[in-house]
């Protein structure tokens, strides 16, 4: 059973002494750093850092840390987030009819691989209600029709709010999310069933088959209004051959999709992903 | 030291009995099949087959095999190629300034990994002459200028003919080959430094970096007039991270390029690749 | 929906004409070969072959094929097996307390990835009964105590027989199976949580951690009386680092175990694995 | 052209404030940290850290850094090493008859992938003298016979000393190095042609073939008196099948060996590998 930790994710303009300043903040309050990592994008003039320390023996109470750190942040011109390793993330999973990613997420949550709970599963079709129920995850059927898309999104946003959701996972959710929805919703991780930027858009396995590729892939990324253009968190590939027809690619792809998605979710939940521009820094 | 073998590569319209007919041809002449494989593309109604047998004890002389098989082929409506495993393929390598693929091919030839010889290296810059010379491969500098591109291609075609070249390898040859050149030249294998169809065109590592991908790739394919659209033979990928700048991607990419290219060349030389439409069947 | 096929798996002493003989058997009865592959182990003087053809339009009824082929087999001195692609394999899964492999197999069966049914799950602990029930698979608790091991195996053999089981999967079943059990049981596929032959025996992740390896693996193999020495069907690996403690290795290993096991089971079910000596030929 | 950096590698007993202390040392002298990473082995009670900063604008001259840091180190009870990114490492390569690893290292050095020079190649056979010469690397033939092994090692140690060698690479050097040699020599990186700890000792590809594995591997590790038991730096694998005979495994293995070895050498040269006990921490 690991000790609970606090993690600060900090972004600010690059200058000297930032690592020492952050490590000093922890050390001055008697904290023991478990892991710290940082990255400087010289072109962007940006410093990004993740610093994690044990809460046991730390001189500040949980609720005091942010307030204290805000002074450091102002001095650095930094934006920041604070997370505690024992905070259980509340995940909503959006699905259509394919169950493999949903089942995988639910299993990993139950197995303790992801420090999370799934109080909400939303399907635009009712098919996966039984899968959600198997794992005790409440399922809501929110159909999306052409002329009530706005209402459907409103319903989904309300459900997210009512359930205090921290993260949305589009687990093969075959619906586009509007700019308005994304602006109001918590972060959304999507799994795209191709090795982006190859085969954007729909039916990527059909396109991959038509092109005769020798590897297929999957890409887990944050959803943005530009479809399939969001910051990439994780990618995975699998070898295929001329023997594989489209159905085989879809089947092989399922394994790749689950792996890329679950790794991305884990990285996000552990506060290891920082986004800037259209890119991610992944401190693993 | 493996026994020499004969290999038939056969393409014809799909119908029953083709495998038996081919295996029967070999067996009737006292041949011992070493490996046989075939593939039916049901959509295209096409049968593709590769059958390899030991020459020792075979009832037909090498020069008789084609003539005899032609009767079978006509009956099947087949097009076909015959190769002997001890035929040394004559390779020309086209290069610009990057040496890693050239060096790798030359080393593999010398190490006996590829049953081939390299009697011709053509560079549009003179830089790699010393590398070719290290391995005793004759180097020709054929510069390509805007208004004499036609003449340069003519010179290259003459060199290919004079050296009885069986296969051209574009080993990071940063020049487009014209439709006319490709029509006259032997098969051309190109290595593209991306995971096609992602990042077609030039500067793929810059594009990959800008997109923030987590894997980079390389694609070995037959060159066709449509740039980066030729039939794919082999692809390979490598993991990258936010720490890798464009130079790092280029460096990591070199390993991936060499592996994908050398595997593709080996598959081609062993007569394991069959092209139909824009796709390949790889019998490995 | 693919057409049903018949597949013959044939082993016999090497000699000329075997491929033609097998293909001829199919062709003479009007069969259309979908895939055929073979392998000759020259050292062992052994020919191994897999030939699959469409049943539609084949001149022999299903029940006649074996009888007819037996004459060919006698002529070849061959042992053989016949399977039909639409035969649903009856699988028993043996488990202890870890659920990931069981859940994965049950999900793949339900998703139609494996043409199989799971009428029997046996646990030496009762923990996984709920998982089996989720998927409607009957669970039997057969505890194994030191002095009634013989009785427990007898109970298991009876359950296998009563349920007409074709294949046993040890899905992290932490019990040794006796020579007597293996002699009476159908084929048994085991997943060992290491890259065999590294880290044989128990607690391989602890050993891998102590050795400081940079990759961990899993091995799916047929169970034999020699523990961890059975013929290997499939292996898979994953990259690890100094940051991974034993728990992390176990977690990462679960993904690798599931992939290696499910691929091995699929290969077995599709009749693509042939065993000779302590090795397998995998016709994929 | 990257700016030159200084890197400190520090090992000491675990306690609070170490990261801040190290980062503070750099910041107090006006240094800009490029990358810093650390690892705590809780069981061993050990803290290991790597901190790299730009020399430009740093308040201490190169020769002053160590002296200044020694005071910090004493306070921490730390052992440490200091390296500068523009220090060119002097590598000796030990070879027997196989040239692929030697050629790969020499090429990477020439291509600028490794910030190193190779002033010394030692072969116990003369075969690879021409390869060394191609790249202008001085070759010495030091035969090893049963009863003059001690003299041969003495000759090698003298050559290492005379050439001020920083790192020895055993690039398929098929000779055991004695405890005495290892005690006097600089660090030695060996490439073992198996996925250790599988197939220790000689002829691993023969053993791998006999065992029927589906993946082969290579392991780059620091040489220690216990053969094949040294701390592992990097491992790589490749997929093989029943079609691959021992020669094929050897051929495929060469690619894997080169990749694992060159990555390990690069990690070592960049000061990213720290050894403790029989393990490595790799800060990549």
Evaluate the radius of gyration of chain A. 20 Å
The quaternary state of the protein chains shown equals homotetramer
Helix % of chain A is 25-40%
Distance between the termini of chain A: 20 Å
β-strand number of chain A:
13
Strand order of the largest sheet of chain A: 7-6-5-8-9-10-11
Strand content of chain A: 25-35%
Average predicted confidence as pLDDT of chain A = 95
Largest sheet of chain A: 7 strands, mixed
**Which structural class best describes the helix and strand composition of chain A?**
alpha/beta
Low-confidence stretches of chain A: none
> What is the CATH topology assignment of the largest domain in chain A?
Rossmann fold
> Given the C-alpha coordinates, what overall shape of chain A results?
globular
> Any idea what the CATH architecture of the largest domain in chain A is?
3-Layer(aba) Sandwich
Number of spatially distinct domains of chain A: 2
CATH class of the largest domain in chain A: Alpha Beta
Number of helical segments with 4 or more residues of chain A = 8
Largest interface: A-B, 27 and 27 residues
Name the CATH homologous superfamily of the largest domain in chain A.
Formyl transferase, N-terminal domain
């Amino acid at each position: 059973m690991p000790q609970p930790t606090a993690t600060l994710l900090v972004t600010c303009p690059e200058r000297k002494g930032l690592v020492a300043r952050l490590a000093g903040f922890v050390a001055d309050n008697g904290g023991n750093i478990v892991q710290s990592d940082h990255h400087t994008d010289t072109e962007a003039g940006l410093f990004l850092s993740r610093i994690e320390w044990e809460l046991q023996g730390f001189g500040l109470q949980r609720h005091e840390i942010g307030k204290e750190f805000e002074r450091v942040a102002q001095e650095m011109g930094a934006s920041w987030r604070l997370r505690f390793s024992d905070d259980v993330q509340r995940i909503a999973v959006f699905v259509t009819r394919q169950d493999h990613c949903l089942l995988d997420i639910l299993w990993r949550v139950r197995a303790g691989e992801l420090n999370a709970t799934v109080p909400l599963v939303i399907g635009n079709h009712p098919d996966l209600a039984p899968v959600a129920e198997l794992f005790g995850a409440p399922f809501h059927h929110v159909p999306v029709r052409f002329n009530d898309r706005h209402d459907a999104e409103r319903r989904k946003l309300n459900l997210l709010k009512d359930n205090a959701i921290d993260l949305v996972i589009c687990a093969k959710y075959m619906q586009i999310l509007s700019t308005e929805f994304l602006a109001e919703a918590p972060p959304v991780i999507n799994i795209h069933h191709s090795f982006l930027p190859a085969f954007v858009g729909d039916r990527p396995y059909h396109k991959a088959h038509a092109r005769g590729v020798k590897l297929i892939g999957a890409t887990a990324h944050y959803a943005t209004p530009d479809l399939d253009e969001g910051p990439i968190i994780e990618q995975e590939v699998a070898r295929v051959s001329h023997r594989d027809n489209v159905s085989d690619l879809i089947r092989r792809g399922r394994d790749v999709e689950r792996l890329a998605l679950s790794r991305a979710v884990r990285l996000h939940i552990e506060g290891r992903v920082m986004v800037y521009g259209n890119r991610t820094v992944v401190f693993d």
